[in-house]
């Protein structure tokens, strides 16, 4: 397989998220403006071609919950206003920091064509499809992003923009860094931090944020590989007995003599992780700068079973889907009878009652991997993260189709900072509000094979059809057919 992958990679052409490279110079930071020109007509945001325009960012002033009582100390507050107060606002068919891309689900020169991309089970891919997926991951890991850079200092450390501190990074590691950045502690100086903060976990935005994150990651891999048909596959981990994808054929088997490492027969064993040393960053009052920090660690099944006694079952998933409330007060990891909190893994999957001493569902899979996947900041280093979160997203999609909620059930205020309905998602530029991804995947241009093929896996009923943005899709049954590291913050512990 290795030889075939190398041959395949040689045929691919690198493409030409966090901070757009065009917006990192001091002049842009001082003006707080990120409205780059679209190359098609040379105008900011492609305005001359009707693609978009440069507009003021309207940051929501809805009150946050009490979990973060500070103000004016974190660059992510009121995102993205600390860095930019003017960004591109794209017309309906377009998106991107300069409106150069097509909106999710649209294709073609003018982004007028529609298509629904299908995400598939990785274990059901053909040999060619599987090898292409692995090759694209390796390509993304080795290709420097032409469009984005990462911040290696806070805005204050950048002298309020006059001394830019940014660094190049690969397409894959760009998203690893973003997952670190959205969940990192607030740096207060002199090794002081505020830990009860996370803009993508432990609160309502967990599912919409990761939905956007995966779509953007998928989109960047498409551009890097020059393949607009690419989709990230999922791994159905219900009723797991072993890590089926932890083999050299897939995401890397276990090393024969060092159980925490991957087999050298897998090229993933040569990958280097980033952003795994949260305590070092906190103590030094600096941000992860993308420096390699060692190999991927993984030792599935050798986790702390007192805190993660059970792996997710079909019954656990079905119970979470039966919960009618997306979110309940206090809108964090202590929420009871919350679908989000139960699926995330902070509530008992048999009762829906919060139990932060144990991890289940989403959290349990992270802990089960017993390595890089088992801490929040560095979990995306392991490519199993992608397969895992795509399946979590498919469960979110099932809930939306079963309960067809109106968007106004998503909390508008009093959630942990970053999670209110109209808060802009950290750290995405272009900017998106949380509520923009609280809708059916079909409205975002993608679907899941087992949700589109009646009788496949566990879907029952008619083939699904489109519904308006304000609702989600039809109901389904989710009965399945037979068939810790000390570094960083553990996913099941919260804070």
UniProtKB/TrEMBL annotation:
A cellular-component GO term for this protein: melanosome membrane
Cofactor(s) named in the record: Cu(2+)
InterPro entries given in the database record: Di-copper_centre_dom_sf (IPR008922), Tyrosinase/Hemocyanin (IPR050316), Tyrosinase_Cu-bd (IPR002227)
Region (Disordered): 476-495
Membrane topology: Single-pass type I membrane protein
Subcellular location: Melanosome membrane
GO biological process: melanin biosynthetic process; pigmentation
Keyword Chloroplast: no
Major location category of this protein: membrane
UniProt domain Tyrosinase copper-binding: residue ranges: 201-218, 382-393
Keywords: Copper, Glycoprotein, Melanin biosynthesis, Membrane, Metal-binding, Monooxygenase, Oxidoreductase, Signal, Transmembrane, Transmembrane helix
GO molecular function: identical protein binding; metal ion binding; tyrosinase activity
Signal peptide: 1-17
Entry EC no(s): 1.14.18.1
Entry similarity comment: Belongs to the tyrosinase family.
Protein name: Tyrosinase
Organism: Callorhinchus milii (Ghost shark)
């Amino acid at each position: 397989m290795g030889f075939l992958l190398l041959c395949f990679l040689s045929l691919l052409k690198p493409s030409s998220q966090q901070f757009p490279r065009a917006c990192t110079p001091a002049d842009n930071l001082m003006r707080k403006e990120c409205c780059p020109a679209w190359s098609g007509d040379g105008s900011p945001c492609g305005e001359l071609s009707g693609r978009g325009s440069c507009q003021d960012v309207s940051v929501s002033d809805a009150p946050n919950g009490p979990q973060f009582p500070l103000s004016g100390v974190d660059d992510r507050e009121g995102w993205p206003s600390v860095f930019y107060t003017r960004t591109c606002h794209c017309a309906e068919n377009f998106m991107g920091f300069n409106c150069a891309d097509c909106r999710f689900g649209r294709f073609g020169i003018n982004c007028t064509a529609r298509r629904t991309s299908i995400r598939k089970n990785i274990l059901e891919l053909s040999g060619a499809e599987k090898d292409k997926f692995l090759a694209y991951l390796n390509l993304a890991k080795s290709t420097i992003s032409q469009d984005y850079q990462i911040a290696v200092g806070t805005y204050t450390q950048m002298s309020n923009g006059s001394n830019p501190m940014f660094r190049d990074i690969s397409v894959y590691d760009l998203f690893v860094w973003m997952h670190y950045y959205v969940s990192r502690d607030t740096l207060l100086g002199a090794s002081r931090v505020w830990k009860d903060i996370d803009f993508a976990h432990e609160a309502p935005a967990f599912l919409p944020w990761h939905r956007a994150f995966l779509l953007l990651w998928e989109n960047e891999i498409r551009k890097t590989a020059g393949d607009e048909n690419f989709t990230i596959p999922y791994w159905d981990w219900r009723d797991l007995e072993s890590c089926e994808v932890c083999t050299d054929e897939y995401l890397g088997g276990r090393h024969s003599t060092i159980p925490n490492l991957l087999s050298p027969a897998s090229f993933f064993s040569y990958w280097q992780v980033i952003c795994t040393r949260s305590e070092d960053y906190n103590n030094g009052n600096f941000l992860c700068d993308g420096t390699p920090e060692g190999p991927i660690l993984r030792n599935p099944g050798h986790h702390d079973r007192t805190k993660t006694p059970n792996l997710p079952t079909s019954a656990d998933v079905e119970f979470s889907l039966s919960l009618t409330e997306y979110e309940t007060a206090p809108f964090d990891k202590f929420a009871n009878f919350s679908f989000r909190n139960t699926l995330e893994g902070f509530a008992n999957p048999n009762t829906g009652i919060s139990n932060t001493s144990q991890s289940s569902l989403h959290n349990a899979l992270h802990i089960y991997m017993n390595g890089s996947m088992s801490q929040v900041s560095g979990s995306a280093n392991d490519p199993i993260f992608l397969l895992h979160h795509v399946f979590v997203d498919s469960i979110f999609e099932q809930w939306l189709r079963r309960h067809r909620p109106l968007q106004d059930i998503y909390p508008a205020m009093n959630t942990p900072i970053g999670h209110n309905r109209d808060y802009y998602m950290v750290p995405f530029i272009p900017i998106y509000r949380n509520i923009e991804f609280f809708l059916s995947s079909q409205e975002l241009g993608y679907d899941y094979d087992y949700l589109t093929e009646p009788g496949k896996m566990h879907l029952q009923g008619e083939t699904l059809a489109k519904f308006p943005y304000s609702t989600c899709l039809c109901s389904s049954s989710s009965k399945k057919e037979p068939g810790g590291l000390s570094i960083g913050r553990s996913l099941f512990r919260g804070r």
